[in-house]
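quick one, two chains, predict together pls
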Amino acid sequence: MVPVDYYIALSAILFVLGTLGVLTRRNPLIIFMSIELMLNAANLAFVAFSSVYQTFNGQIFVFFVIAVAAAEVAVGLALIVEIFKSRRNINIDELNSLKG
Amino acid sequence: MNSDLIVFLVLSLVAISSALGMLFSRNAVYSALFLVLNFITVAVFYLLLGAPFIAMSQITVYAGAIMVLFLFVIMLLGAVNLAPGNSLPWQKPLAGLLSTILAVEAIYILFSRARSDAVITAPDASLNTMESLREMAMTLFSDYLLPFEVTSILLLVAMVGAIILTRREKGGQS
């Protein structure tokens, strides 16, 4: 018997930690991982509500979010590899111009 | 203090500390491994919430496929330890302040305005049958058929995009 509020609070804490990672870290790979952490926190809230309301809709939404995250990671990591090949550097602070 | 609550508290401690470990470890490979631990913990939460199918997809897709991709790229680029650049000096305190404000706001609104008295009971064995999985599949392939097809197109587009982005042009420099 766990109150659903506890799950939502845990989800909020994980989301804030992900935000903190995006704001402070300078390695684009770690920024990506923090975004995954934020998506995961949202998924946890979805499944918690789905369990409270005894419906599958939340779980199916989580399924779609996992698919979108996989697509996002594939394209994002391809972009990071490509930037590294042309600039030899992936520090976020030095990638401030759009012109290659 | 019942056993469900104890399991929840221990697991949330593991989840939060592995997220902190991901944030603050200097080595990118350690960060990725902490994130794998976090994903597995969240998968156990899904089992507690009565979503075994989502828990297994979480482990195969997130902890398996996505994190292996991350580890490959980290080692391919040699981005294990990035040299600290000339970052903005006020960035970290400001980020910490703003994140604290966000956390306090979220927890305040949750426990003052949106307080819910619903409780989640531990799932019983009836969930672990084919019947439950069949019910979920019926929802997925009837009510959510169009989003499902759109997801397949999205995955196709991502696959083509990743191939085109990393393709080596003939005669070009890269």
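The mean pLDDT of chain B is 86.
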